[in-house]
Amino acid sequence: MNKLVMNFLVTEGYVEAAEKFRMESGTEHRMAVKKAVQCGNVEDAIEKVNDLNPEILDTNPQLFFHLQQQRLIELIRNGKVEEALEFAQEELAPRGEENQSFLEELERTVALLAFEDVTNCPVGELMDISQRLKTASEVNAAILTSQSHEKDPKLPSLLKMLIWAQNQLDEKASYPRINDLSSATLDDPTV
């Protein structure tokens, strides 16, 4: 949606409005944070989040813990065992003492160090790229929430509502129906 709005502003020559929209939407910055997490550059992502709005991590201890957990996973992935242990002990263990679920997640993550082949260990899914994507999505949602945007897109809900409404109408009337949602072409009712 932001790209559509930006395209309109640029195409119609509203340069100042386009620049203001870019700054206010925070789209570029948010995408840079998301990309940093997806690439395993967690420290960079934390720095970018704090540049955007330091309150995001201050007011969301679970998000901060998950970022730190991802940082630990990246240290383990890169074979930095001593650094990983030190980081877990100094940064994550104190948070685990405050919150039982954090402690359980920390124990699962540190368990990766006990296995030579982490891909086949019981907690190997933590090393999977999907773990990075999960953390990136969580950060993205927190940034959107902090900017008073919706964290979930509205389009899927609207499409579900359209399908439901059409199903209700099918029982009562003949009308131009959208059968192919990707093209949104109307099919004439059968008479």
TrEMBL record:
One Pfam family this sequence matches: LisH
Name of this chain's protein: CTLH domain-containing protein
Residue span, CTLH domain: 26-83
SMART domains assigned: CRA (SM00757), CTLH (SM00668)
